Amino acid sequence: MAELFDLKETEERVVLIAVSTGDGDDAEGSLKELAELVKTAGAVTVDKVIQNREKVHPGTYLGKGKIEEVKDLVWELDATGVVCDDELSPAQLKNLEAALDTKVMDRTMVILDIFASRAHTREGKIQVELAQLKYRAARLVGMRASLSRLGGGIGTRGPGEKKLEVDRRLIHERIGQLKAELEDVKRHREVTRQQREQGCAVSAAIVGYTNAGKSTLLNHLTDADILAEDKLFATLDPTTRSFTLPGDQQILLTDTVGFIRKLPHHLIEAFKSTLEEAKYSDIILHVVDCSNPQMDMQMHVVRETLKDLEIVDKTVVTVFNKTDRLRAMVESGEAGPLAQLPRDFSADYQVRISAKTGEGLDELCGILEQIIRSRRVHLEKVYPYSQAGRIQTIRKYGQLLKEEYTEDGIAVEAYVPAELFAKLYAD
Q: What is the pLDDT of residues 272-316, one digit of tens each?
């Protein structure tokens, strides 16, 4: 069956190939991103080839003439394989490998390889293996030369069970086991989420294109000490940390897996339970690398992926990150002066920051405090000293503005969660 090649065993030298159908697909930009993926996976790109066609060849991905050109290129550059910028069908993978006489990989193989190396938690490993197996299951047909297994002894003569059928059965059995394990993890996550809701904790999911700076932001705010590198998919496993805003309001921040264009369907399905953290959050922090020339495309990919996951009707804060890098680009002439004014008209709030230097984080915290306050109710009440314990509840779940001890009791002014207001106001 088709294997997922580990690009890190030996240094692979690969030729990247893409097909541009001329419908605004930005094959050049996509191929540049594929080169970053390949680099993250541990391989070296030796050349890039783009073929302009009306549509992708259904049998070999490339046309016959371009296949000969790529074959010569692989030989001349001493390449160890080629990587296609799209997910190949089983037939395309088999036929192209036979025509080029070299290892053929596609974009999904590379992404799965990176994910496999970056998953550290039990849930992350389960999700990656599940995605890998679903990918392999779809590519079993026609990938084996030996399709039968002969038995020995009385009663076992004949073709026996086909190797293809054995592979398919084993893969589907393992998929079933992994789904059951993932359900257990999901139930545990739901219990944790319910406990947060009972505690009236406001939560924010940090989402964005891969390498936009999500993990760096979480590290700067909460000292989470999670891996943050200038690489695609540097972190994979979700991390939740509590953060105390300057006004003593608590918020839970969750870093999620980065998005990317042409994200394999298998991965979206496998990582749905992780991405549900965004679905059940109160606030979406959409981190954007404003120094990236492909910023608008990346923002569109994130918005569409959130829509596909039915993550809608959330308060969205677009966080334009890496403003320090953008400023340097403008000063050097690499970017025009208008680039310093990024906008997202679909967001409820927007802010420009540098998660690396801390620039703009005070403004971001102010926006978060404003959002939290808008979700709370203003409370003014004098509590008898016998109900002093309620002050602690206000401190824990709300924002205490004033606390004055009088002859009649404790005069309090605060902002409290709407769901606690009636209980705190009652005599």
A: 666 777 888 889 999 999 999 889 999 999 998 888 888 888 999
Reduced 3-state DSSP string for the chain? CCCCCCCCCCCCEEEEEEEECCCCCCHHHHHHHHHHHHHHCCCEEEEEEEEECCCCECCCECCHHHHHHHHHHHHHCCCCEEEECCCCCHHHHHHHHHHHCCEEEEHHHHHHHHHHHHCCCHHHHHHHHHHHHHHHHCCCCCCCCCCECCCCCCCCCCCCCEHHHHHHHHHHHHHHHHHHHHHHHHHHHHHHHHHHHHCCCEEEEEEEECCCCHHHHHHHHHCCCCCCCCCCCCCCCCEEEEEECCCCCEEEEEECCCECCCCCHHHHHHCHHHHHHHHCCCEEEEEEECCCCCHHHHHHHHHHHHHHCCCCCCEEEEEEECHHHHHHHHHHCCCCHHHHCCCCCCCCEEEECCCCCCCCHHHHHHHHHHHHHHCEEEEEEEECHHHCHHHHHHHHHCEEEEEEECCCCEEEEEEEEHHHHHHHHCC
Q: pLDDT tens-digit profile of 170-214?
A: 888 888 898 888 888 778 777 776 766 655 678 899 999 988 999
Give me the torsion for CA of 256, 259, 263, 266, rounded to 10°. Answer: 10
Task: Give the span between the Cα atoms of 410 and 403, in whole angstroms.
Answer: 7
Query: 19-47 burial string, b = 16+ CB within 10 Å, else e?
Result: bbeeeeeebeebbebbbbbbebbbbebbb
Nearest to 307 by CA among 266, 330, 279: 279
- In sequence order, the 6+-apart residues with CB closer than 8 A to the CB of 96 are 60, 61, 62, 67, 82, 84, 88, 104
362 φ, ψ (degrees, to nearest 5) = -65, -40
Tokens of 219: 């590290």
76-123 pLDDT per residue, tens: 999 999 999 999 988 899 899 999 999 999 998 888 888 888 777 787
The structure's pTM equals 0.79
Q: Is 411 exposed, middle or buried (0-12, 13-18, 19+ CB in 10 A)?
A: middle
CB 353 within 8 A of CB 361: yes
Angle at 390 between CA 423 and CA 192, to 5 degrees: 70
